[in-house]
């Protein structure tokens, strides 16, 4: 399998595409005006403690306060003996070992938030989840600092190894290497990319991370509250740190300044990968030359066509996404059951791909076409589970139900591609539906009937959207005449192009 990282870098936007066998698998973007916060470390102030929610709101200098749950507060006595942690994050994740925080948090259930934090207290926190929708950033006190081969966890005293390194002999050898060079009480996790790393490489990473933590501690003492203490790497360098491994065949970028920055980073932390760097100088834009632009546009459409002629529909709310599978134009060859089974099997692979590409998180319900054959159900479920294994985000899947539904969760650390690239319709404000013209007309009639006696004057001017005006003067002409007769008022229709179609103004005049 060929794997390539493509980076389209401009002053206003940086876009990154992970391409596997010529197909876009992951897409990330970063805009200076909408830069993500994950991995950033802040000195914040507790502004509110909520015992009923066992959480606190922390002012870190952003528009919205951050949310700190009791399980994410550092308590020295609660540290567990953790042996293995997954350490291979997606590029937008600058805290690849968030699972360590979750394991630590399970030991915090004996503590109450009001015993740990007080309003007005200063606290050092790290963003573990970007603000999404109306929610503020999710915060944690369990600081982690990732580098190329290691992740430093300054508040723990243990050595962990990525779960993706399965060979027990290699795991033990890596633990011994870290134990031989780490300072007493310093916690580290060995990342997947370090499976064959030399002791000198691990030592260089460790020295860099220890020095970085010292700088963060010194900065914390001197800055006011709230303040940014440490800002994580930008998307170009994160792509090198988190995605650019020996399995990647090439990293291509189309902007020389960014290329030199990556080249310097790789020379320091992964010199063996220097030959895989490439500066693109083609006439066509980089993404157009590789067909990425078309794939990006497909990734924000609700309907996704399958090769067979079937299709899936993807609908998302703030916390829930629903995916519906349909046969569409696919009529099959032999019988209905076979047609449904083939559509579902193709959809299972496509859905796993779309979840990763679109970065859809939270609760996900997949409505496969109902199948009567139990063997078909089991094969479909096995196919879907195998398809999502490529996804680096943590996924939990429940068994296929009798109705053909799959319930699952996918860990969400940042906004989905749809949220990053789109905004709610200024007309319907994201509802997706508007009141019908006739419904609005009848609202106007009821309003006039209700207020006709109390209102003075003998003329009523209706200031409405042109489409409503058209219906009032044509399809509802008889109703308007009857309304004039019942109320004794003359009706004047005044189309207003600047009016929202659901809004209207009734002006009573003498």
From TrEMBL:
This is Ribonuclease G. Keywords: Cytoplasm, Endonuclease, Hydrolase, Magnesium, Metal-binding, Nuclease, RNA-binding, rRNA processing, rRNA-binding, tRNA processing, tRNA-binding. Residues 37-142 form the S1 motif domain. Its cofactor is Mg(2+). Its main location: cytoplasm. GO terms for biological process: rRNA processing; tRNA processing. Belongs to the RNase E/G family. RNase G subfamily. PANTHER family: RIBONUCLEASE, RIBONUCLEASE G. It comes from the Bacteria. Pfam families: RNase_E_G, RNase_E_G_Thio. The keyword Repressor does not apply. GO terms for cellular component: cytoplasm. Transmembrane segments: none annotated. It is found in: Cytoplasm. InterPro entries: NA-bd_OB-fold, RNA-bd_AU-1/RNase_E/G, RNase_E/G, RNase_E_G_thioredoxin-like, S1_domain. GO terms for molecular function: endonuclease activity; hydrolase activity; metal ion binding; RNA nuclease activity; rRNA binding; tRNA binding.
